[in-house]
Design a protein that fits this description.
Number of helices: 0
Radius of gyration: 14 Å
Mean pLDDT: 97
Order of helices and strands: EEEEEEEEEEE
Strand content: over 45%
Low-confidence stretches: none
């Protein structure tokens, strides 16, 4: 079974940085798009950064210039470097990946990692 495991969350002061990681494991044949989602307290989950299989990247306006998404295909891992963090970045961050196995292609989610930014 494919699993995505996030790490790297924590408590940081405003203006600080964190680096999130999400490692995929299991019977993976290929990974296409990978995304990071942010769910703020009491709000819906939203996509904040995407990296395609061809390494194109896309960001929501609120994180442009502060967050950088990258991937290491040899490790089946996606990263989110978060700089200049703001209190509104607080929430749970989830990774999401489009994964192909012998059973076909589908989306998988990680369990989430908590990020708390204090003012």
């Amino acid at each position: 079974q494919v699993q995505l495991v996030e790490s790297g969350g924590g408590l940081v002061q405003a203006g600080g940085s964190l680096r999130l990681s999400c490692a995929a494991s299991g019977p993976i044949l290929n990974i296409y798009d990978m995304r990071w989602y942010h769910q703020a307290p009491g709000k819906q989950r939203e996509s904040v950064a995407t990296i395609t299989g061809g390494d194109s990247t896309y960001y929501v306006d609120s994180v442009k210039g502060r967050f950088t998404i990258s991937r290491d295909n040899a490790k089946n891992t996606v990263y989110l470097q978060m700089n200049s963090l703001k209190p509104e970045d607080t929430g749970v961050y989830y990774c999401n990946a489009e994964v192909r196995t012998q059973s076909g292609t589908r989306m998988y989610w990680g369990q989430g990692t908590q990020v708390t930014v204090s003012s």
